[in-house]
Design goal:
single chain; 11 helices; 8-stranded parallel β-barrel
Amino acid sequence: MPRLGVNIDHVATLRQARGGREPDPVQAAVVAELAGADGITIHLREDRRHIQDRDLRLLRESIGVILNLEMSLSPEILELAIVVRPDQLTFVPERRAELTTEGGLDVVGLRDRIAPMLDRCREHNLIASLFIDPDPAQVEAAIALGVDAVELHTGRYANAAGSKAIAVEFAALRRASEAIVAAGIELHAGHGLTLKNTGPIAAISGMKELNIGHAIVARAVFVGLDRAVREMKDAITAASATNRTAIAAG
């Protein structure tokens, strides 16, 4: 069954809107962990628009589950990560003007920048993942770099309108997943996943981790964070059980 990584960036966004101390993303992480989250994901952006350096340090001290740090190809943030030592680094694209991550990392075009970052991670025994679109060229480039994990960007699937478009995007994700798993690389996915669309992604063979934030935090406004995390965890569990049953049936 895939691990559930709960992204708490939006809790920090709400805090930063007033410039105060509440809501505390570290407290949110503890609630999510107690509710069954297998990991906590944060994106320390170069402009520090939501998560702050202090949050990263406190989370490292406070939680017992996987701490996944999303970051751009920033040498400065990598050096901070080497000191704090999150359990996993996920390299993502980053633009100052974007509201949220808009697509996958261009591994093909940025190979010469990515490779030294991965070497630095290996030097310090840090697990590294690349967040990419499910495009064959990007998948091939990520595999060639020998990265520890690949997180597939599920945004196009999540935003597709109509059954045909959804089927096309899901097929692309499944093909990319097969290539990643066949290469012996750990398979992750995330972006735009909700209670309604997570099931098929969770059921992909070899899926090890799903990182979900906005849908959980948005749901928490109405039902509380504890219940929102439990509901998503239940959805992943149900999808995984259905997949195991289907495989057993042949």
